[in-house]
Design goal:
CATH architecture of the largest domain: 3-Layer(aba) Sandwich
Strand order of the largest sheet: 6-7-8-3-9-10
Strand content: 15-25%
Structural class: alpha/beta
Order of helices and strands: EEEHEEHEHHHHEHEHEEHH
CATH class of the largest domain: Alpha Beta
Largest sheet: 6 strands, mixed
C-alpha cells in the first residue's frame, strides 16, 4: 500500500451552532492528485484551512509526512513541505514576477522579508525563482510587473510562488476560478505535468477539470464525507448525484 503523505482522522470543527467539519477522515497517498468537491457550504475551505494550519480543529488529528501537525502553525507545516496556493498567497503587485518568487525562495531559506533587496540580487535565489517561473510557463514574463500580468498569469505566478518552497504537497484552492476557457485549459495542462512531481490536493468547482485531473475524489456535504472514490465511481454514485452532481455540473464555493 502506498504511504499516506496526509492522514486526517475524525476531524471536527464547529462555528457556534454550525458544524463545518463533521467527523471527517481522509488519506492522501504520495503521488496522488486528490480532488475535494461539494456544494456551496460543504466545508471545503474550512477543511483545507485546517490542513494547512490557518484554522485549528476542535477535535481529531492531522498527520503529514509521518508527523502529527494537528496543532502546528501554518509556517511550521510549510517548513515540512505543505504549501497552500491561491488563497493565502499575496502577490506584491508593484514587484516583478521574479521578485515575488525570489522572496518566497528567500522565506523558505529562513530569511526575513525585510531584506527583499537581497532576494532580487542574490544569484541562487534568482536562479531558484527563474526555475519555478519556467516550470509554470512564465519564464518570458519574469521581469514583468505583477500588475501588468493577466489574471491567468497571476494564478500561474501564485503557483510558482508555492513551488519555490519545494513542497511535498500542494493544496490548491480553486485554481480555475475566474479563468477563461483558454487559461483554464492551460492550467489543467500545467497541473497534469506537476502531478508527476508533487502530491496535490485540489479543491475545485470546475467539474471538467476535476474529472480530467483527479486520481480520487472526495465529496463533502455539510462537512461530512459522503463518498471517496475514483472519478468513474463518483460519477456513478447515486448519493453523490442527488447531493451534488445531479442538477449542476458546476457548483459554488464552499
Amino acid at each position: 500500500m502506498v504511504e499516506a503523505l496526509l492522514s486526517v482522522k475524525n476531524l471536527y470543527r464547529r462555528f457556534g451552532g454550525i458544524v463545518a467539519t463533521d467527523d471527517l477522515s481522509l488519506d492522501v497517498p504520495r503521488g496522488e492528485l486528490h480532488a475535494i468537491i461539494g456544494p456551496n457550504g460543504a466545508g471545503k475551505t474550512t477543511l483545507i484551512s485546517q490542513l494547512t494550519g490557518q484554522l485549528l480543529p476542535n477535535t481529531g488529528t492531522i498527520h503529514f509526512a509521518g508527523q502529527d501537525v494537528t496543532r502546528l502553525p501554518a509556517y511550521r507545516r510549510s517548513a515540512l513541505g505543505l504549501a497552500r496556493s491561491f488563497q493565502i498567497t499575496s502577490l506584491l503587485k508593484d514587484f516583478t514576477a521574479v521578485d515575488n518568487v525570489a522572496l518566497a525562495a528567500q522565506a523558505h531559506d529562513g530569511h526575513s522579508f525585510r531584506f527583499w533587496g537581497k532576494a532580487r540580487a542574490e544569484p541562487h535565489l534568482r536562479k531558484a525563482a527563474m526555475a519555478a517561473l519556467e516550470r509554470v510557463g512564465l519564464g518570458p514574463r519574469a521581469d514583468a510587473v505583477v500588475s501588468e500580468l493577466s489574471h491567468g498569469e497571476q494564478r500561474e505566478l501564485e503557483l510558482a510562488v508555492a513551488l519555490a518552497a519545494k513542497p511535498q504537497m500542494l493544496v490548491l484552492d480553486e485554481p480555475m476560478a475566474g479563468l477563461g476557457v483558454t487559461e483554464s485549459a492551460r492550467m489543467v495542462k500545467l497541473l497534469q505535468e506537476l502531478r508527476r512531481e508533487v502530491t496535490i490536493v485540489l479543491v475545485e468547482h470546475d467539474m471538467d477539470a476535476v474529472f480530467a485531473l483527479a486520481d480520487r475524489i472526495t465529496v463533502l456535504v455539510y462537512g461530512r464525507v459522503i463518498a471517496c472514490d475514483v472519478p468513474a465511481g463518483i460519477r456513478q454514485n447515486a448519493e453523490v448525484r442527488r447531493a451534488y452532481l445531479g442538477d449542476q455540473q458546476v457548483a459554488g464555493h464552499g
